[in-house]
Amino acid sequence: MASSSDEDFVTLSCTQPNPIGNSEAFITIQDINSSDLSAILSCQTVKIQAHRDMLVEDSSFFKGLLSRSFRESNLNCVSIEWTIEGFINILTSVYGFPMNFTSGNFLSHVEDALYFGSKSLLSKCKAWLYAVASSNNPELQLDDLIHIWNFCRGHGNDSLPEICALYLARNFMQAISSNFFGAFPYNLLLCCIKHPHLTIHSEMDLSDALLVWLNGNSNREQLELSNEVEDQSKGLLKQIRVSLLPLWYIAGKQRCCYFSELAKESIQKISRLVEISPPYPAGIFEDGGFGHLRIRLTESSKKVNISGCPQVTSDILFLSLLRPEYYVDSTLRNIIQQSLITFERLSMLQIQIGDLYGLSPPSLSFEAVEEVDISKCPRLHLKSAIELFSKSFPSLRKLIAAYLLNFKSTNLFILIQKFPLLSEVDITVDVTPLIPEQVTVVCTSIISVSSLGGNNVFGSGFFSPWRCLSRMTRLILEGRSDVSDIGISVLISGCLKLHSIVVCDTSFGIHSIQALCSPTSNIGPSDSESSKRCLSTLAFKLQTLHMGGCKGVDENSLRDLLSKTQTLKRLCLRGTHLVDDALYSFSSSSLEFLDVSQTMISGDALAHIVNFNPALKCLNTKDCKNLSQHGSNNSGLADSHRELFSELGNKCKLEKIVLGWGISWLSLEALKPAITSLKEIQIGLGGSLNEDALRLLPTTCPMLESVVLYFQMLSDTIVINIMALKHLRELGLCYCSGDISISSFRNCFPNLTKLRLERVAPWMTNNDLDVLILNCVNLVEFALVGCRLLNPDSLRIISNGWPGLTSIHLEDCGEVTKTKVSCLYNCRALEDVLLRHNGKGIYRFFIIVAAKKLPLLRRLSLDTCDATDGEFEIPDCEQRGMLSTVKITRCFINPEKSYRTVEHKDTLVLEWSSKNCTKTVVEERL
Questions:
Q1: What is the pLDDT of residue 414?
Q2: Which 3 state secondary structure label does DSSP give 707?
Q3: How many CB atoms lie within 10 A of CB 892?
Q4: Mean pLDDT computed over 10-33
Q5: Which of 101, 74, 301 is closest to 199 using CA atoms?
Q6: Residue 353 has pLDDT above 50, yes or no
Q7: Kind plus residue range of the DSSP H or E element containing 273
Q8: 288 burial type by CB count under 10 A (0-12 exposed, 13-18 middle, 19+ buried)
Q9: Alpha-carbon dihedral of residues 738, 741, 747, 750, nearest 10 degrees?
Q10: What is d(CA 328, CA 636) in angstroms, rounded to the nearest whole number?
């Protein structure tokens, strides 16, 4: 090399502060591109000759060192103190050699780049981090993300923190479940939730996450000053679009210290949206825009959950799916706003915009969305919604549309045509209370509901179009009594890939079973005829079969069905004509969930199933009166009973168990090995656990989340022990004897969400209610029966104390409803209300007003003896809101018997379906 060119190079001598060894190495530029640098990295000092201009051009560190008036600028050898690995990384980047970036080494690369001011390495860091942030497979650890944010912010770098916010925004749903979520710096979290790529399933997820963060950080040293806590909480919470929160969720946050003001604002806005119908008043648009009404959707969104939002309409969906230019451009925004105010329907609005501006259909396509939940959205016009979804969610695979009475069979047909990948559908509705075997019908009348009408294509001869159902794998039709057995069979016949079906309390019957058991495809010629018949059926492929309450299935059909189901994991046969022979014909060994409640099976048959299904986790045998009787093997009663619980105890690890007849403290002893991880237990009629067993229950099953006891002997000690369970979420004490008092509830139980005290707390007073409200702040379901010391103030205490209730049952509770019930409307998210025998103070139009004031109300039970006028006005279709079932019992006081001896007369049941309203009078008290 000529001497003149030697001046273009400089020898760099790098010494690391804490060397592993004491050696010194001389290397070339090509050496740093070798695959094994372990020997070099262990040296104390490394020397290398590098091109001066390349160093100066890329690195501000070397530019200042080699091209200015520093002494080193004229030297042929320059000394540097830095890690050997970091020094090698800088040279690797300067010379353009490939570099390896991982979540673990990224921060060190950034540190190297910032220290040396390397433009190339910083650019590579930025490119890698952006690629990771934009990827659908996140690979950055969240604790590393926090370190990167803090380091870069502390060193004045703004570009990488912006990408950190993008990464967190796109992966927010994964982040909120991480142990590191509470450690996120405030500014990072704020940047994330302001980011246009923030990806959440629902606005509720964002709210929950922020509350978790605020609660987790409120005691930190950095937030010790109350004004700082308040400022940060306001800064975060004001980013929430409160108009899009589920009503049940926001109602329950009114007592939250951070959320109370925002909750009131949210309820006001939601109430305005619910109570008004299009055309919308101009006042609903904030600052001339409608950003607060736009559901968050990004290119990373996989799930969209707007369940429990009665305020959501097709118009709001339309606003959420608009292209950006429609809500950024003021002219377009004004057109949309004025069109909604003047109630030009959705289709007309799209046409108007297209004609004026010659633009394509005003909706974005979100390819990643696979699941949509629109349950309990009664104001959603389904046909318009499906049309919008078809344009924006082409990859939709799962739709949950539960408790929507306006979801007709034709809507399902349209869905299947519009979405080529749709494989799971849930159209559950409330179950009818009219079980034929349990009621005596006096009279019935049916009123057609034209606005909910439509052709029922199930079983009407349109078999061929349903062949496109072949991709359907999971169907949930629970409660759909408006679909016939033939209709369900037609539907099943088209689902060639069906592996899960939930048809509890429907008309599922013999025809449907025939569809499951009929051959669907050809099997190899070497298989036997019996194998062909079995392997080619849908029944053989089923993993989930829930047919509880389906009385249209006879014993022979049920036996035939169970003999062909060999891969079932979940089986519900509640209340069916199930007998031992059918269970003995069942050959699956994969069961994890089994519900045989209200059937005639014996302990022998059940023990047989348990023996061959060691993976069983959930078992329900409620009201199985023959469980203690011997079966077909003629074993004695005691032997049969002992064998069942012995099999359970030795072979299973249960998470849920519901027992009644035959359960005793001896049975519980036998079950001990199986219930150490139990989460739910219910002991019903026919079961008897002594005081010692109940007292030791929390010790035996420390993971319990739900405890429901019927007809047991209780004491304060037992209840206090149960309430001490740290995971307890549900407690039901029903018709139990013994002596319990309010002292059982004097501790704080923040996790408890469901509480039933039925005929166990006759001592309950308003002061006791105050104690419950103070210690059980998060209740959403509450039931009291037989608390006769309560008065009209009690209802006010309950509704103000638990505004987030979704279910309230008050029966025979003194004079709770004697003067008024309007305070109940404070619980805006109520879905289920039972008020019976609580005082003659419920006004005539209560049902109609409640349906309007409580937009999620679906089930209502009253008694005419509580009506001020002795009767209630029945709502028509336009007035019923979301009501699906109303039960009005009629009682009278028998003058020949003692004071307040009330006798039942009959029950009027009103049921709304997608087609009609049915009025039925039955003799029984429902």
A1: 83
A2: strand
A3: 12
A4: 81
A5: 301
A6: no
A7: helix 260-275
A8: exposed
A9: 70
A10: 79
Specify whether the backbone of 814 is left (phi greater than 0), alpha (psi in -120 to 50) or beta.
left
Asked whether 499 and 541 are in contact (CB, 8 A), the reply is yes
Residues 319, 311: Cα–Cα separation, whole Å:
14
Q: What is the sign, positive or negative, of the torsion defined by CA atoms of 330, 331, 335, 336? A: negative
Rg (CA), the chain: 34
Residue 460 confidence (pLDDT) above 60: no
Q: How far apart are CA 458 and CA 410, in angstroms?
A: 9
Q: What is the DSSP letter of 739?
A: E
The pLDDT of residue 897 is 65
If you average pLDDT over every residue of the chain, what do you get? Answer: 84
pLDDT surpassing 60 at residue 707: yes
CA distances in angstroms from 541 to 538, 553, 569, listed in the order given: 5, 20, 11
Number of H helices, E strands in the chain: 35, 29
Bridge partner residues of 474 (DSSP): 424, 500
CB 758 within 8 A of CB 784: yes
Two tokens at 63?
A: 């530019």
Pairing of strands 885-893, 730-734: unpaired
d(CA 618, CA 678): 9
**CA–CA dist 810, 816 (Å, integer):** 8
Q: Name the phi and psi angles at 722, rounded to 5.
A: -65, -45
115: part of which helix (H) or strand (E)?
helix 106-116
pTM of the shown model = 0.88
Tokens of 273: 């949206």
Q: How far apart are CA 565 and CA 878, in angstroms?
A: 45
Query: 226: pLDDT confidence band, cut at 50, 70 and 90?
Result: low
Mean local confidence (pLDDT), 631-655: 69
Q: Are 378 and 404 in contact (CB under 8 A)?
A: yes
Between the CA of residue 776 and those of 525, 755, 798, what are the distances in Å?
Answer: 65, 9, 12
Distances from the Cα of 659 to the Cα of 195, 596, 602, 679, 707, angstroms = 51, 11, 13, 14, 12
| 100-115 pLDDT per residue, tens | 888 888 888 998 998 8
Model confidence at 340, pLDDT cuts 50, 70, 90, reads low
In angstroms, the first-to-last Cα distance of the chain is 102
Residue 230 and residue 575: Cα distance in Å, rounded? 55
Cβ atoms of 86 and 112 within 8 Å: the answer is: yes
CB 133 within 8 A of CB 166: yes
The DSSP element (H or E) to which 608 belongs, if any, is helix 603-611
Residue 337 binned pLDDT confidence (cut-offs 50, 70, 90) = low
Tokens of residue 72, six digits: 């080193």
Question: Which stretches does DSSP call E strand in 360-517?
Answer: 371-373, 398-400, 424-426, 441-448, 474-476, 500-502
pLDDT score at 635: 44
Does the CA dihedral 76-78-84-88 come out positive or negative? negative
